[in-house]
Amino acid sequence: MRNEPAVQVTGLVKRYGTKAAVDGLDLAVPHGSVTAVLGPNGAGKTTTVEICEGYRRADAGSVRVLGLDPVTQGARLRPRIGVMLQSGGVYPGAYAEEMLRHTAALHAHPVDPALLIERLGLESCGRTAYRRLSGGQQQRLALAMAVVGRPELVFLDEPTAGLDPQARHATWDLVRELRADGVSVVLTTHFMDEAEQLADQVVIIDGGRSIARGTPEELCRGGAEGTLRFTGRPGLDLASLLKALPADTAAAELSPGSYRVEGKVDPQLLATVASWCAQHGVMPDHLAVERRTLEDVFLELTGRELRG
Amino acid sequence: MTATTTAAADRTGGGTFTPAPGPARTGAMIRAQAVLETKMLLRNGEQLLLTVVIPALLLVVFSAVDIVDTGAGRSVDFLAPGILALAVLSTAFTGQAIATGFERRYGVLKRLGASPLPRWALLTAKTCSVLVTELLQVVLLTAIAFALGWSPHGNPLAVLVLLLLGTAAFSGLGLLMAGTLRAEATLAAANLVFLLLLIGGGVIVPMDKFSGGVQDLLKLLPVSALSDGLRDVLQHGAGMPWGDLGILAVWAVVGLAAASRFFRWE
Q: What are the record keywords, sorted (chain B) (predicted)?
């Protein structure tokens, strides 16, 4: 049973009318890991998560969450998962602490609500009605409600949207602690740094399909393109350098003495550039390989046009 | 057996968030939910206006001032049963419809749908909360009526059956409205229905003020059946008012069946 992933989605399809919101999506979330689901608006992130939570039925494909069918076996599944919706979910007139204590009371072995309130910096608003909380406070309360029941698996839909940096870091610390304690986490986000900071696995989805997956490092390393920069004396003979390099490599002097080499950056290319510099009596200062960021990968895969 | 216990203990040891999932006992969940729902209702000023202030005010004003001709006898003997019917209407129908409509709108029902609380348990808790509120209303309104010189007759059991069946009928209709319309539409419609039934349902205006054909139709309304039944028992000392109970039973069955068929949780 432990060998089976916490979430296993295969060939998931969900249509609204004639439009397919999710179109053959695959997703596997290993036990005890943090999986970040990235994607532009309308990519199908929330629909996928809500199908896993049992809110919607899949039109096709298979969905197993903790080995259970979220729709037909929802009653057995719900006590084992924690859910943070993108917004809302609390009586407007309920006090923050009252609502968290209530959610705790629905579970057999809850975390002490006072501890979560302190951890998420909600002490000052325990006796404040939900509708009077700031957006960030509402988000943190929703996060506390998702984890208070000591679930095996939590779904966090954009947990840090609208949070200030302090609250984001408090949220990240909590997610790291969940992972350290063996909780599986699925979170959707628009923030690349969030995925880089937290995720064991990143899944990029677009147009209702998963188009890339891997650790943040794997995704950034993937792809042939790379950039090498160095500085040296101005006016180096770049034609001579290019003769030493593979055919599809480009080189340019961006400003006097500042050089950029673009191509398949591997140890061989680095060695070739270094040895060419040695032959020409050039000291390549600031020699650096530029890694792609997750954001570069994301934009490369999903395009740069604005989404609805 | 020992091995299993040890494994379970290991799982619940460890860190703060080491998984130890499981639902609370169903009874405890329902109690917690009913307490929360009741608190939400009592904390809401608009709801209190509807369920407490308006019925109490109508009882006092219409008893003290001869605005409507309530027939032979003291006006409070006519009014008190009607106001009790209005109290049930305000809580089980209007209040519950508005509150549930906004809970649906704000995602409260959606979020609870992902909690260990089963839907039937949520509805049970809502019903408990409605009954607790009605109990408070009945105590308050009865005390006011006694202070105004009310002298009720009849079988308390018949009164209880009428109030419970009325609650079932109004709850079904209220939840049907809350589960199918937008929250704002529910707010407007529930208040409008409250006002129309207050006037046309035999609550403070005697049925015989309306012409024959209209009267026959109005008598089929759930609030008319409830106020008429309560009046038969409390004012005239009748036994079980089977006709009115029958009307309420039909409304209850139709309303609850339609609500369970058409209610949308999001």
A: Antibiotic resistance, Membrane, Transmembrane, Transmembrane helix
Query: In a 10 Å sphere around its CB, with 0-12 CB exposed, 13-18 middle and 19+ buried, how is residue B240 labelled?
Result: middle
Nearest by CB: B21 against A55, A87, A151: A151
The answer to whether residue B107 neighbours chain A at the CB level (below 8 Å) is: yes
Question: Token pair for residue A256?
Answer: 């006097």
Cα separation, B70 vs B80, whole angstroms = 12
Cα–Cα distance for residue pair B166/B157, rounded to 1 Å? 14
- Contact criterion met (CB < 8 Å) for A94 and B17: no
> Where is A54: in which H helix or E strand?
none
Residue B235 has what DSSP assignment? Answer: T
Q: How many CA atoms lie within 13 A of B61 on its CB side?
A: 9
The CA-atom distances, in angstroms, between A89 and each of A70, A103, A146, A214 are: 20, 11, 11, 32
Q: Is B110 on the interface with A (CB under 8 A)?
A: yes
Q: Where are the domains of chain B?
A: 27-262
DSSP state of B91: I
- For the record, the structure tokens of A172 come out as 């990240």
pLDDT score recorded for residue B168: 96
Cα angle vertex B183, ends A132, B137, to 5°? 80
Count of CB atoms situated within 10 Å of the CB of B162: 28
> Is B12 within 8 Å of chain A by CB?
yes
Name the β-bridge partners of A213: A203
Name all domains of chain A by residue range, CATH numbers in brackets. Answer: 7-220 (3.40.50.300), 223-291 (3.30.70)
Angle at A56 between CA A53 and CA A60, to 5 degrees: 105
A125-139 burial, b if ≥16 CB within 10 A, otherwise e? beebbbeebeebbbb
Query: What is the CA A37 to chain-centroid distance, rounded?
Result: 5
Local mean pLDDT, 10-residue blocks, chain A (308 residues): 84 94 96 95 93 96 97 96 95 96 98 96 94 94 97 96 92 96 96 92 94 88 73 93 90 92 87 93 89 81 72
Q: How far apart are CA B83 and CA B152, in angstroms?
A: 13
pLDDT value for A225: 63
Q: How far apart are CA A75 and CA A65, in angstroms?
A: 13
Contacts of A141 in chain B (CB under 8 A): none
Left (φ > 0), alpha (ψ -120 to 50) or beta: where does A62 sit?
Answer: beta
Taking residue B213's Cβ as centre, other Cβ atoms within 10 Å add up to: 8
**Nearest by Cα to A167 from A133, A123, A200, A122:** A122
Length of chain A: 308
Contacts A47 to B, Cβ<8 Å: none
CA distance A9 to chain B (A): 19
